[in-house]
Structures are given as structure tokens and as C-alpha cells.
Amino acid sequence: MFKKGDLCKHFKGKNLSEKNIYEILEMGVKYSGDASDKPIENLVIYKNIFQGKIFARELQDLIAELPQEKQELYGQKYRVEKLTQDEIKEVKRRLGL
User: Is the pTM of this model over 0.90?
Assistant: First the structure.
């Protein structure tokens, strides 16, 4: 679904200008922690392109389907979705690129 370099949007926000926009930095990362921690597999590392904050979440969390009422409210089927080409153009305009 995602690959390194993809631009994605979080579901919260009624339009693109209200949504958090992320760039996928890495896919399939494994976090082993210390000996007492159970390893976490298939992490996605991503960055908020406007704030610069970096996050890590399991892929399954990012691609989780939203409940129907949230789909209707936010106009997205999944928690995080790739931007369309038109949305990428709009985001680049906001960034001054």
C-alpha cells in the first residue's frame, strides 16, 4: 500500500488543509527494544511534513478501516491514505514548491 517517499493524509480534518500530511520515511522496520520487550514488526516511520515531527506505527494501525460514521465525517475509508496527484499539487503549493 505505502512505499518510501509516499505522501499521505491522516483522516482527521474535514478538508486537506486541516489534515496532517505525512511523508513515509521507511517501511518494514523492526523494533526489538531490550530483552524484556516483545519485538514489534512491520513498523512504518513517517514524518509530518509541516511540523517535522517523526512517528513510528505498525502498518496495520495506519491502514485500519475507519468506522462508517468516521468515514462519512472525514471523507476517508482508512486511518491514513496516500494523497492523490491533485492533493500532492495542493500540498506542494502550500509548501511553496
Answer: no
